Amino acid sequence: MYWRLIVGGYTLHFLKANPDQLVIPVPAYACRCHRIARRRRSALVGRESSESESSRVSFRRTYVYLRRYMYSTVDPPTADPPIRRCRRSISDAHPIIRSAPAPPPRRELRATTAITPPAWTTMIMAAKRPAGGSKSSRRQDQDAGIQSSAKVALLSSLILLRILVGFHRHSGENNYHGKSDGFGGDYEAQRHWMEITYHLPIGRWYSYDLAYWGLDYPPLTAYVSYICGWLSHVLVGPETVALVTSRAYEEVNHKAFMRASVLILDVLVYFTAVWVLAKRLEPRDVEQRMWTIGVALIQPSIILIDHGHFQYNTVALGLALWAFHYMTLPATLTNCIVGSILFCLSLNFKQMVLYYAPAVFSYLLGKCFAAQPKVSRASQCIGRFFVLGATVVATFTALWLPFVLFRSDGVSISQSVLQIVQRLFPFQRGLYEGKVSNIWCALSTKPFSFRARMPERFQPICALITTLSLCLPFCVCGFHVGRKRLTNENEPQHLRSLLWAAAGTSLSFFLASFQVHEKSILLPLSPLSLLIADTPLLCFWFGVAAAWTLWPLVENDRIQSAYFSCLVIFSLVSLLYGRPFATLREYSRGSFARVGGDIASTIDRSKWIYVIVVASFVAMLGLHIFESAISPPQGLPDIFPVLWSIGGAGIFCMSWCCFYRQLSLVSASVDEGAQLKSK
Question: Does residue 62 register a pLDDT over 60?
């Protein structure tokens, strides 16, 4: 009737008489299973034993009946680790069981009931433990393996997509620039900077042959160009960076080296930053975290610009995201110092990161005013502000000092610094370049003709006032959130606030600042793509619109196939994700319950959001169809680029309103959390 107990008793009684067998530690908490086994004992009555049933015996159930007998003679181990769940197979032990002496009487078992079990006991068994552990542990191992495989597959797919885009043409390939007087593009510019930084002294980097792709990026880009130039000289050949004679060099091996340099820096800087921030934004929901990483790293605009057109924007964007990470960590002032250094590095890699500066400054200024217990507010504010300011000055000094120390003969310190500043901010280029989708380009069309009517000397002032006005609401919210004490509970909300503020100020600069390039749309897109869990529809809509506004640049680079492929892949991934389209369906039905925690569904309780989103998608697709089917009239050769500019400006203006709304909601949630904690 109790065949499990009998078989176990025979085995244990024999093994106690033969202590030279295998010693396996057993956790003492298994004793707590005695009550469960007792309830289950009645279920064994009347059950027919069979060969298959007796082939496996649960060690736990046997042990809870015989533990007192074992405690009376076995000493606990001293160093063996515990095994939480133990199952033993006795199929190999049948000969031993058959030759074992009779088990002790039940009366002897009862005599040991007063013995207290030690912390750990050893059980001597002849049967070897099968690998794999219990079902629950095996299931956990399988889940961990599946998650690891999914991560590897995701990262491999994202890297493969970038490699495939890299097989397309780069900007200015074969000296094609979309116009008759063009010579090369950004690819040749980056290669030329490697050439001049590798061969020329540092004092001539920003003054050498400015007519042919003169260096116009900050010092950190110049240092990275020097390293890449040295690697190209060593790995590919000296002819790739030979001074003057290597101009327009487009050999296949060197193209592979250039593409690989972008990919490696992208993975090392941008991939890691996205991964860390996604983990902080979604600390518990692993599935949502993986979707956030996938959507952030599959943005068509970023892939097309860096791996198609050819640039190193992800280095600057990744450094900025790393700065946001450290600035919002709940610890000492050290994290803010590290974040400030990283942001200065990002700003010294590409000057367009200045678009994030108002949001970062307002947030850090708010943290200077954040109250700390047992510290005077005035002294604390002054001390923090001084430390952060000294950090910025020290970082800039370390990066710019070589250009002062090793300046050319006859050049003063002020001239050497001013020379770099003039290259970084070329105001002589005008209000905007090309047909960028911002306010000034849209207003420069007839009948407004803003650029023609406004005197050139007033255009920078007008752009500055408009830009600061658009940035001001985001700066106020960022300062307000920064003043709240940063704790482990509100840490994700602080990070979200800084990301929304950075996206808002960068979009403000893109819409209204002076000398805007179409590639600057990557700045608001990068932090926004990490917030897809908050606003899936807005992130999807903005991501598609950002890539769509790059169409004139894509046409010049002749990478249309990569453009459509990236957009289709991005749309399919969003379709698999499901939440953007689920939110859109809720808007179409007039249902405004929160869809999976979507904050965007609280913007307005009417169907105008659905109408605007659907109409914008139809307009974007329609313009592509019209351009391919209809030739522009002779009097309006730029009609389609102008329509692209006007449509993109309208979408981005509406996005600016949505950005501010989202930041207001996150700021309000931080206030509610602070009030609840105070109560």
Answer: no
